[in-house]
Amino acid sequence: MKRVIIKISLSTALISLILGVFPVHAKWGTRAYNELSGPEQPQSFLVNENVRMLWFQRKAYLSQARLTEAAAEMEKLLEQKDELSRSERREFAAALIMEGDLYFARGQIPRARVSYQTALELAPILPAAYYALARSYWQKGSRYPLMALKEFVRGSFLTFKDLKNLYIIIINSASLLWLTAVIAALLFVVSKLLKYQKSLRHDLSEYLSSRLSLTMANPLSWGILLLPIFLWLGVAWIMAYWLVLLWLYCQKSEKVLGVLSLIILILALPSGNLMVSLYSSVHSPYILSSLYSIEGEYNHINIENLRQVLSENPDDLDARFLLAHQYGKGKRLELAFEEYQKIINRQPSFAKAYTNVANIFFALGEYNLAIENYKKSIALRKEQVIPHYNMALAYAENLQFKYAQEAMEKARGIDLEFVDHHQEDPATARAIIEEELPQRTLWRRLFKGIFRPPTTSAATFSAGPSPTTFLGSSLVSPTTLLGLLSLAVIILLQLFWKEKRLARLCGNCGRPFCYRCKTSIENPAYCSQCQHIFVKQKGVSQEVKIKKSIEVQRHQFWEKLKNYLLTLVFPGMGHQYGQQPIAGFLILLVWLYGLILTFLLPRLIPITIQLPEPHWGLGRIVGLTICLLSYPLALGTLKKG
User: Fold this and answer.
1) Which residue in 135, 413, 426, 528 has the most C-beta neighbors within 10 A?
2) How big is the CA angle at 175 (ends 173 and 176), to the nearest 5 degrees?
3) pLDDT, tens digit, for every residue of 249-294?
4) CB 582 within 8 A of CB 560
5) Which of 147, 118, 151 is nearest to 132 (CA)?
6) Burial of 264 by CB count in 10 Å (0-12 exposed, 13-18 middle, 19+ buried)?
7) pLDDT (tens digit, 9 = 90+) per residue, 463-508?
8) How far apart are CA 517 and CA 540, in angstroms?
9) Are 135 and 111 in contact (CB under 8 A)?
C-alpha cells in the first residue's frame, strides 16, 4: 500500500511541476504556436500543387456540408504528406487546428475533434494539437476527463522539447524560486527576532544599566533593536542587522540557515537583475533569433526577427548569415544570394558564405559558377569537408567525373566518416550540404544576449556591457556588499567570541536571565525563581507557588498559541520559532512557492507571447493546492509544547 501511495504522490508531484512552471491558459492553448503556424490557409506555403488543390477541394466540400467527399479528399491529402517538409506539415496542421477552433466555437465538437486528430497525423509533435484535442474532451458533462488529462500531459511534455518554450519555462521557474528564497530568508530572520529578542534586550539592558540608569536602559535596548527601522533603512539592511545581533543566540541548525539567508541576500540583487534581463530577453529579436536558429528549422518568424536585428546592427554578419540560410531553406534563393553577397562584400574571408553561394548556383544548374565558388571557399579553408564534397557533386552533375572523383577523395581524406554517412543514405547521396554556423556559436550568441541588460531597443539587446561588467556592477552594489560584510562579521563572531554567558529564556516561565541573575550551581535551564519554587521547593509559600504556576501556565499557553498562529499565517514559521528550524524553512519554501505561483501567475511569461494573459486555470489550481497541502503538513509536524 505504501508503494502505491508513493507512486501516486510522485506522479501528482510531476504533473504539478509540469502544470506549475508554465501558465495554463483558459483556452487550454488551442492557439498555442500561432507564431509558428503562419496564415490560416496553407496556400502560401504549400509547394506541391496537388496538395494545394486537394486542400481547396476539401474546403469546398466542407462549405457545402459534403462531409464524405471532404473526408475522401483529406485521405488523399494525407497520402501525399511525405512530399511536404517538416515546417510545411506543421503549418498545415496549424491551419487544421484553426479550422477545428471554428467548429468548436459553433458547438460542433465531433467535427472539431476530427480536425485536431487530423492535425496530429500531419504533425504529431505539435503541442497545440494535443491541447486542442484535450479541450474537446474537457467539456461540461463530458465522459472523457481522463482522455483530456492524457492529451494535455502529452502536449505539456512536448512543450518542453521546444527550445523557446523551455527557455521561458526556465525563466518562470527561476523567477519563482528566486522570489521564494528571498521571502523565506526574510521570514527566517523575523522568526529569530521573535524568538531571541527578549534575551538580546536583557543583555543590552544589563550592559547599559551599568553605565546609565535602569529607566534609560530598557528604552535604549528597544532603540538599538529597532534602529534600522527608525533610520528608514531598506529591508536588506534590517535583515542583515538583526541577523548579526542575534547570531550568538542561535543554535547550530539556525546558524546554518542564517548563513544561507546571508548568501541569498548577497545574491539577491545580482540574481534579481538577471531575472529582469531574462524577462526582457524573451521579447528580444536577438534572443529569439538565436533560439530559433539553434533549432535549425525554417521559420518565417525567425526571418522577421533576424531582419529586425540587422536593421539595428547591419554589421552583425552572423545574423546576416542566419537570415540568408533561412531564405535558402525557404527556397527564396534570390534573397539568400543577396544576403550572402553582402557578407562577402563586408568580409571576403567568410568561407561559409562562398559555399552556400555555390549551393545556390548548384540548385539553379549553374555548375561552373558553383565549382568556382566552392574553390574560393576551399582556398580560405582547405581542411573543410563540405566544400570538397559539394564540389565533387557539382563536377559529377557537370559530367567531369575525373575531377569529381578527385574532389571526393579529398573529402574522404578530410573526414571519411562524414562522407560515408552521406553516401550510404540514398536520400542524401546526391544532395549538396549547406554550411551552417556551429552550435557553439549560436549558444554563445544566446548567452551573450542573456547576460546583457535591456536597452531602449529590443533588437539592440546585444549592445549592452559585457557579461563580466553586468555581473560586476551587481556584485559591488550596496546590498551585496552589506551581505558580504555581515557574513564576515558573523564568521569573526563565531571564531573569536569566547563569552558563553549570554542571556537565555527560562524553560518554564519564559523570563530572560543571565549569569548575573543566578548562581553557577543552579540548573541552567531555569531562572532563579523557577529553580527555588519547582526544583528546590524550599522556603516558598503556597501563595507564591500558585502565583508562579499561573505565570508558567500563561506563558506556555501563549507560546503554543504563538506557534499555531505563526503556522497558520506562514506555514513552517512556527517550526522556526520553536525547535524545528530546518523543517520549518523547507515547509515555508513550499508554501511560498504555491502562494507566489497562485498570485503571480498572470505576470509570468506566457508560453506563446501572442496569447493574452493567463486566466484562472490549472496553473493557479496547482498553486492553491500546494498552499492548502502545506497547512496540514505544517500543523501535523509541529511539535507540541
Assistant:
1) 135
2) 65
3) 888 899 999 999 989 888 887 887 777 777 777 778 888 888 888 8
4) no
5) 151
6) buried
7) 444 444 555 555 667 777 888 888 888 888 888 887 667 888 887 7
8) 19
9) no
